[in-house]
## 1
Amino acid sequence: MLKKLKFVVDKILESLLGTLIVVMVILALWQIFTRYILKNPASFTTEFLRYALLWLALLAAAYCFGKKAHLAIVFLKEKFSGKLLLIINIFTELTIIFFALSVLVYGGTQGVIMAKAEMSPTLFIPISYIYIVFPVSGVFIVFYSLINLIDLFTDKKINETEEVTQSTM
C-alpha cells in the first residue's frame, strides 16, 4: 500500500518537475528571442523563471529525499553497523522530519499567510502562490522521511529474522 502511494507521489513529482523544466526552457528561449531578435524583451518571463526556479529547486529537493539521492555526509555513518547504525539512521530521519515540519511546513505556512496581500509586480498573482511551495515541499519531505523510517524498522525485522535463521542452521 505504501509502496504504491510512494510510486504515485514519485510519478506526480516527476511529471510536475519535467513539465516545469520544459516550460522554463521554452520561456528562457522566448526571453532570448524577444530581447535580441525583437529588441523588446518579454517582461513576464524573468519573474516567472525566478519563481519557477524556486518551485523547481524545492520540489526537486523533496523528490531527492524520496529517491534517497539527496546530499548526505556518509563518511562517519559508514564507520558504524548494526544497532548503532540503525539508531543513527532513525535519528537522521527524525531530524529531517523536525526540520521539514518546523521550517518548511510551519515557517512556510507563516510566510504564505504574511504574503497573502502582496502581489507579484509583473505576473499580478499573489506572492502567497509562490511561497506555498515551502509547506508543500515540506509535506513531501515528511512523507518520504516517514516511509524511510518505516523501511528502517521493516528492514530491521527482516534482518533479525535472517540472523535467527542463520544462527539455527
## 2
Amino acid sequence: MTTPRHASSSPRRKRQTGRAPTYLVCAAALGLAGCAALFAPRPVAWDYFLLTSLPAPDASVAPAAPELVVGLGPITLPSYLDRIQIVRREATNQLSFNDRERWGQPLEDGFARVLADDLVTLLGSKTVFRPPWRARDTLDAIVEIDVTRFEVVTASRRAELRARWRIRDARTKKFVADGAAELDRPLADESTTAGVAAMSETIGDLARELATALARQHAAAAPAGGGGPAT
C-alpha cells in the first residue's frame, strides 16, 4: 500500500517545483518595466522665437508720411528658410539647423508682420496693407521685396539681411524706385535670443530705408494729385 501513495504524491511535487515563485515573477516584471522606462524616448522641450517690431517712436519725432497708404507685398524669402527650425550660416556654403530652436510662426509671415508694423511706426500711417488687398483699398504705393539672405552668421556673430526692393506707383503701375539692401547687426551674445533680436533690428533698418524712399516719392507725386485705387 505504501507504493501507490508514493507514486501518487510524486506528480504533485513535480508540478509545485516546476512553477516559479510568485515573488520572482513580480520582480522580473518590475525589472522589465524599469528598463523600458529607462530606455523610452523622452519628450523634447522645444524653444520658440518671434521676430519683434520697432518700439513706439518718441512723440517729438514727426511722422514721415502719415497720409500715405501702402500695399506691402509680395515678399519672398529663399526656400532654405522655409522651415520651422531657425537657420544659422556656419560658412559660405554651409548651414546648420537646431531642431530644438524653432520659429513661433512661419518666417515669411513673421518677416512681413514686423516690416508692416515698422513701416506704420516710421511713416505714421495707419494703413499698410498686406496682400490680398481689396479693390476698394485705395493705395498710393506698392512695395515688392525679394529677400536673398536672412540669418545669423556664426563666425561673425552678426545677423545679415540681403534684399532687393521695388516701389510701384499704385495709380500708374510703374516702378518709381528700387534698391538693394545689405544690412547687418551685431549679436549681444551667442544665444539664439540675441540672434533673433539682431535679425529683428535688420528688418527695422530695411523699414527705415523703405520709409525714406516712400516719403520721397510721395512728396514728389503730391502736386500731381496723389494716388488712386490699386486692383
## 3
Amino acid sequence: MADEQGVIERRQYERITAQFTVAFHLVETGDAERMSRPGGEYKDITVAHAGTKMVKDVMTVVTENISLGGLKLVTPKPIKEGSTLGLELQLPGLPLPIKALAVVVRSEIAPNATGKHTAGVRFIAINKDDVAKVERYIALVKRAEIEKRNSKP
C-alpha cells in the first residue's frame, strides 16, 4: 500500500511503537541453524549462559517498535546485518520473558540519537504461544491508542 508520499510499504506485519527491554546475545552460525530447526534449542538458551561456547556478549537494550514479524532495537553500537541473535523480550505485564531467535535485516545509525544505532530484526524461531502473547500485546497497545484518541475533545 502506498503512503501519502507515494512510498510502498513492503512489511508483512503492522508495526507499533513500543519501548521495552530486550536482552540479546550473538549466536554462532552453526548453532543458529541447529537451534532454529523445528524442536530447536533456541528457547533453552538464556542470558544466563553468557560466556559459554554458544553465547557471546550479552547486551540489554530497548526496542523502538515491534510487529509479529520482528522488532527494532536501539543499540549503543552497530550490529552486523545477517547476524543471528538470541532474544529475551520482556513485554510489559508478562512475568517471564519471551525467547526467540532473530536475524538482523537492517543496521543503521539512529537518526535522532547521538551515538546510537538501530537494528531491525526478523524472528526466525519463536514459540506459537509466544507469538500469541506478542499479538495480544500489540492489540492492547493499539486499543489504548484508539481509546486515547477518542477521549480527546
